[in-house]
Amino acid sequence: MIVSRCRRCGVNRAEVYLAHSNLSLCPECFTLLTERRVRHTIESHKMISRDDRLGVAVSGGKDSSSLAYILHNLYEKLDMVLIYVDLGVPEYSSHCLKKVETLAKMLGRELVVYSLERELGFTIGDVRGTIYGKKPCSACGTIKRYLFNKIAYDLGLTKIATGHNLDDTVEALFNFYIEGNVKSLVRLRPYLPKTHPKIVPKIKPLIGLTDIECYYYAEYKGLPIRALECQFSKGSRSVRRKELLNTIVEKIPSFKHTFINSHYKRILPLLEQALKSQGQGEETEIYDCPICGMPTSLKGMPCHFCKIVNMIKGKVEVKVS
Ligand SMILES: [Zn+2]
Ligand SMILES: [Zn+2]
Fold first, then answer.
1. Ligand approaching nearest to the C-alpha of 297
2. Domain count, the chain
3. Of 38, 106, 213, 254, which sits most exposed with the smallest number of CB within 10 A?
4. Residue 11 is assigned to a structural domain of this protein
């Protein structure tokens, strides 16, 4: 049996093979290089400054747990809290909550838990009886985006870090390309700065790491990771698109890295120019939601979150938000 040695230290046995850069690494070198790559992403986009008060959106999954762990290690002195939104998915949500509680203890960081059922009197399962019923993932995405921002804003945090990785980003970009959704293509960035006093800037420090790299990192560091998948996400469009993109990677290992680099370095600047020349810069008008007072792009109408809440209100009795 041929035992291949780690390409970096040349001593330990290689366990991880990174096809995109043709590197075989031992666990130690792999985790070290992974942390360095995240630091590089953070520094090159100036994502974090010393006086930031950071909220890390955690889900109990490999990505957000790795993110919290890496940020804690890289920026020990940074003011940082973990935020978990409990959507009330049977079994799954309480299982995930236990994992994030263990993670928070492991890091000695505060965990803020927001329970949809406790705060608003419904769970994500109630979405099924509404027009969002066929797309619970999209309603779930809207609810989570809104709540992470709202919670961070109410806590006076200066930034929110999410665990979106390379696979998530390529999947989203790929979808926007297919739809010809130029505005969303331009808006999807590693760092979304403040565009409104009530919008907390978002950062995605893991945008350069693949699913499998996040998985290995969490494994090697012994992080508490959920063992269940959300029952509502099974067979969702985004899961199917990810499978399709992985088929391409089997033939072209660097596909996702090339795709994202081409997009950010070559295509995005041209798209921005084109939008500007048509007089539709990225800044869309922002209005106050008449119900919750949070910012929305919908003029004189409830924001997307309040719309969903209203929709569910028609079905179950909901406490005032
Ligand atoms: Zn090594
Ligand atoms: Zn609202």
1. 2
2. 1
3. 254
4. no
Ligand 1 centroid to 28 CA: how many Å? 6
Rounded Cα distance between 306 and 310, Å, is 6
The region that residue 82 occupies, defined by phi over 0 for left and psi between -120 and 50 for alpha, beta otherwise, is beta
User: Which of 165-191 are b and which e, b meaning 16 or more Cβ less than 10 Å from the residue's Cβ?
Assistant: bbbbbbbbbbebeeeeebeebbebbbb
303: CA distance to ligand 2 center in Å?
Answer: 4
Does residue 1 belong to any structural domain of this protein? no
Assigned domain for 164 exists: yes
Ligand having the closest approach to the CA of 150: 2
Q: What's the CA-to-centroid distance between 297 and ligand 2, angstroms? A: 11
Q: Find the 305 Cα to ligand 2 centroid distance in Å.
A: 6
Residue range 146-164, pLDDT digits in tens: 999 999 999 999 999 999 9
Looking at residue 18, its pLDDT comes to: 93
5 assigned to some structural domain: no
Domain hosting 151: range is: 16-313
Ligand closest to Cα of 321 equals: 2
Distance 150 CA to ligand 2 centre (A): 10
